[in-house]
Description:
The structure holds two protein chains of two kinds.
Chain A: H1 2-13, H2 16-37, E1 45-49, H3 54-62, E2 66-70, H4 75-81, E3 87-92, E4 95-100, H5 105-121, H6 140-171, H7 173-177, H8 184-213, H9 222-244, H10 250-255, H11 257-260, H12 262-270, H13 288-300, H14 306-332
Parallel strand pairs in A: 1-2, 1-3
Antiparallel strand pairs in A: 3-4
Chain B: E1 3-12, E2 15-25, E3 30-34, H1 41-49, E4 56-61, E5 64-65, E6 75-78, H2 90-100, H3 105-118, H4 134-146, E7 152-156, H5 164-179, E8 183-188, E9 199-204, E10 207-213, H6 214-219, H7 227-241
Parallel strand pairs in B: 3-8, 3-9, 6-7, 7-8
Antiparallel strand pairs in B: 1-2, 1-4, 4-5, 9-10
Helix pairs in contact in B: 2-3, 3-4
Amino acid sequence: MRNLAKRVIFQTLNDKRSVALILIAPLLILTLVYFLLGDSDYVPTVVLDEDAQEQLVEAFEEETLVVKQAAFDDPKTYIEDHEDVDAVFEMTPDGTAITLREPSTKSSKAVREIQDALTTLNPAVEMDTAFVYGEEDQSTFDSFGFVFLSLFSFFFVFILSAMALVKERSGGTLERLLMTPIKRAQVILGYTAGYGVFAIVQSIFIVLYSIYVLGLASIGNMAWVMLTMLLMAGTAVLFGATISVFARSELQVVQMIPFTIIPQVFFSGLIPLDLIPYGLGNLSYVMPIYYGATAIKEVMVYGSGFAGIWIYLLGLIVYAGVLFLLNMRALGKYRGH
Amino acid sequence: MNIQLTHVEKSFGEQLAINDIDFTIQSGEICCLLGPSGSGKTTLIRLMIGALAPDQGTVRVGETKMPSMSMLRQIGFMPQNDGLYEDLSAEANLEFFGSIYKLGKKALEARITEVLALVDLTQDRKKLVRNFSGGMKKRLSLAIAILHKPDVLFLDEPTVGIDPILRRQIWDQFQTIRAEGTTIIVSTHVMDEVLECDRAALIYNGRLIAYDTVQHLLDQTENGRVEELFLIAGEQEVGEHA
């Protein structure tokens, strides 16, 4: 088993693309996600009627808004004609009306700022918001960063192991290997251990980078997050090995990503599972990423320790165990079983 | 070590790949499995090394019934596609496969040097296999197959895509290995190579149509060409169906 793990490590080190895939790609994408989901300094443009009260205009100008005044008949056609305008605010006989371009983050930002302006005019409707976990002003990256930790520790190791094993099958090395007196369990464990070494380095890279460089907040102990990531990576090696049975070439591994990885992205915590209709949320139990992502969320967002996550870790271990047995069966084919 | 096949049958789904094959390969000989592609040569080899279990009949290597885990130590196998780790050096490939046989570090080092010299790759031992030419890969693949000094060596179409000069060299190496007492089973569809062997087994549509010394087989033909045996077999088959 040791010699196989050693071979996997040397083999991967000799292939620069694999090393980049496992060590650099996660950091690159994490950085990209950080900027994409980070705080935006966009200032929405709101148009008020040219006859609006001075007090109202001043309250609007206090907020992070570009305030313009104009004469218009129909706010909808006005927005259509003026590309730079996000919202039109009117006082009507029955109260107030906001017309927005489209349901988007820009629009919701405009609404938020307008509500703040109205609150300053009428402090009685002021509402304080408080969160038990997390903070009001945290960016989307802060809220969802944990999802990417679990996703990356799974995805890249999966790709690497599935491709390497397809290559072993099609290149005849697996056949040759199984015509030596090596035990099947040694083959599978050797693989898992070899990629496990990369998974350890990868999880250290990702965790240190996201906390110290990107400033991702965690209230729990990061050691538990790393442990979870390692178990995820181990499961990913076995998952990749299982998938490789169904692929004849590396290209086919890529073709199977829509079936193997993309559904898991949606169940990784990006969408709260209770919001998924028709009980489809229950599908998450067959997805390894659910166990990892939930455990990581428990630690980073709710500050849980081992007591709070052991059940998810157990879930991952059971999952890995099932995949291990499937792989044992698949390898038996080469030995006349 | 001899190999006995007793009424061996193997099918894949509906397809009967090996149809009642019964013969014995003598210890210390070079036996070639000759037949057109798709005739069942590779399946027969896989049955003999124990990668497949027969549906009917038995395969024995020496006294041991195949498939057998313990027999794998005495068997050398050179697969049709080279079966090499492209991202490792020639040396690292040999070290890895050698480590499975637990030869001991010193002994393994010495043996690696020996087999590299035999297949004439001493100069290239540190090179990554992905930079090897087709012929170099074949030779390295052979080196791995004989690394643990097997008693029986199986070679599945070892000279496909190899130029005539290199083919000559590779056959010289087979003769050297055979001279050390190793039984060699080699599959081929190149008729010239038959002349290098002691005996030939002619496989046609999953059946053994002839098994004899090469000289006897050639005596049966008009022009001394092995191809004729297949033509005769084809005609017989048509006759049976008529």
